[in-house]
Amino acid sequence: MKQAVVLLSGGLDSATAAAIAQGEGYAICALSFAYGQRHALELAAAERLAKFFKAVEHKVITIDLRAFGGSALTAEIAVPEGGDAQGIPITYVPARNTIFLAYALAWAEVRGSRDIFIGVNAVDYSGYPDCRPEYIAAFQKLADLATRAGVEGRGITIHTPLISLSKAEIIKTGIALGVDYSLTRSCYNPDEEDRACGACDSCRLRRKGFRDAGVEDPTRYQH
Amino acid sequence: MKQAVVLLSGGLDSATAAAIAQGEGYAICALSFAYGQRHALELAAAERLAKFFKAVEHKVITIDLRAFGGSALTAEIAVPEGGDAQGIPITYVPARNTIFLAYALAWAEVRGSRDIFIGVNAVDYSGYPDCRPEYIAAFQKLADLATRAGVEGRGITIHTPLISLSKAEIIKTGIALGVDYSLTRSCYNPDEEDRACGACDSCRLRRKGFRDAGVEDPTRYQH
Asked: I want to staple B98 with a disulfide (CB 3.0 to 4.6 A). Which of A21, A102, B39, B223 is the partner?
């Protein structure tokens, strides 16, 4: 059975990307990162999802982004609520997807897998530069040049099945594939009972997505 | 004073790249990786060199490449001696430079540095795909798209001052800049007294480089 490395954050998007990979006949090699996130709860969700998708293997890589700081998601900076801020938000983690994809590339190469799935999205997204199609195209080009597989003509393909979908379309796709979204989490500011704040950018996008999709949102919100 | 992130492995090439950066007026922000190398001695050399170059900061990032395996440098595979092997050698670490440069990019972005120096070399090199000029060009393109700095028009430049130099030219350049090569180490198979084996690919390239440069080799060899 062909295997794909799937970046699994525990959120709604990566869960849907995993479901799409599975729907295309890939066994899932799940890859998650402990990168000084505010909440280990994100990794707990990734763990649940890896089980849900019967992942061949689930690797959690600890990376040291907190040592660099520079983001509300890794440093002691408050996550903003209710944002209409312009430009790249404070929750942007410098070079995060580049680091994640570099590890995915290494693992795919070692495993002999020729496919990587990442749930980036350039429609209902937060304005991060490393979620755009031109960024992914540049990483694909890099991957072709960086690896033994690429040099030997057995290239590794970066799949971004969500890149041009709205949040509502992502949710409808996932529902059709049987994803249990109650296993996922999106909130940057959950409380101690893991209830979502409902107010951060990520919650707002998620709520609106379920509403627009006409699907009941299984998320437990604080209010 | 302008600052550059310099990838400092403890070897001859990265030491020379650091000297060139310093010669161009940059203060050095040294970045090293503990990536399951066979020998912590490599990091000890990086530490010595960071002091030698009066680095503003020396960050050592622990990364989990050993978890992936797949290389003689990170897994329990013997390092070959005296190699005329064709193609990409077994010491190739999958996607290593991609991971290293991704971290360098993150750190440069957080520091507000616009320059990264890496001592890759495409002449007297070991056949790794991620040391070639076309690979570096692809990473530069990625960096321009991946970062806040790139999006906002203050791009981060990847400098590869050694890329088209022979090993002898690298050594002559470093000597002219005052590099103390006795602080560096190249060997993949040193003994317990940190004496180089003299037989691995890296030792052979180093020895030949000093010979061709007409410079005395300060390395302590086992024989």
From this structure: A102
